[in-house]
Fold this sequence. Notes:
mainly beta, Immunoglobulin-like, 3 domains, five-stranded antiparallel beta sheet, 3 helices, 30 strands, disordered C terminus
Amino acid sequence: MKLLAALRIAVVSMLVLTSVLLHAATAPGTALLNQAEMRYFDPLTEQVVVVRSNISRVMVGESPAFEVDQGKTRQASAGQSVSIEHTLTNTGNVTDSYTLTLANLGGDAGDLQVLRVYRDINGNGIADPGEPAITEITSLPAGQTVNLVISGTVPAFLQTGDEIRLSLQGQSQLDSTLIDTALDRIVIGDGAALVLSKSSSQSCDLPQPEGAILDYQVSVTNVGNTAPVERMLQVSGQQEQGVLIEDSLPGNVSLMPAAINNIAPLQAQALVHFAGDGQDVWQRYDDWDGSGTVDRLGLLIPAYQIRNNQSGGFAFQVQINSGLTQGTMLFNRAFVDLQGDGLADVQSNRVCHRIAATLSPGITFQRPSNAVFQQNRAPVHSEDSDFVDAAIYPLLPEQSQRILLDGVYLRLTASQLNQVLADQDLSLIHI
């Protein structure tokens, strides 16, 4: 069973890596060469024999493809302006243009008025002054994403419980049969309705070098007619309550010293959450000495400070780590978990950054080092010196008692798998 477990770890790891790299479509005209190779030890000649197959060659053709992100549900009040963020991503391997069709759907309680879709240039999920209303996206390169935002006004005559439905459709201009649609819902509610917005001063289109400093800004506004329900937390060992705005740090970054600033309102508390602590266990940011792994930032706002049309927010900085692999992206969004059940009740728009990394992702077969064999102990996974590359390795019987010493190990180099900071160095094994 131990050998089977090790093999399954290998299979799972390779499948995960493939799923990430599929989004980087190969350019048309690229020649794909493939050759199989087998190595074995010949006991008669006492040498390693290498046998290679013929070389196969496949030419990559043009393959247009794209996707619009999933539909959203928003709560709003009668007469309120509404913004709904979306993205359109060119997942094909060729530059394409897209026609956008935005429509109110029938069979609901009413239509959004002054309905438009805008190019969200700064990616903050809001139609800002100067951002253009558009009906098409032109010449989007393969692998690139465009931020969009739908804007409209809820009719004043709608009542609590009413619903508005609308659709945003994208259509490829290279292949008109390629269509993708996001279906959105706006529910007219009575009570608090929080709207989160997130932005960064760095664009996702411009790759950021390792070591660069990234700036994030988070804002929240209550567009409902009452204050939200407060949540109970343990903060630096004391019971505190309020409305908690959370932000899970992306993987492959480090929180900068004196990182949190522009806190509003003044009564709000900046908090940090450490990896491994309970969901409701936090520490005041001012008490943090810089040690420990911070995986989430928080802003605790008293409910009376975020009533109808009141706002709050904060800004923070992170530094991109070094030693990352090509294809690494940073994705980040803020959220509010009103019940503290681990499920986001409100989410901001997603902010992304591309990393200008130079290392290539890969999988390497390894074995324990000779020093580990001499000490007759199990290797420590976090110690690189306990492993060496294995050009050749034995296949052990299932009942072997030396699996940790004689087994085959995989070293996976792919920083793009660290989607959130809390997942770093975390292995999920299915047996």
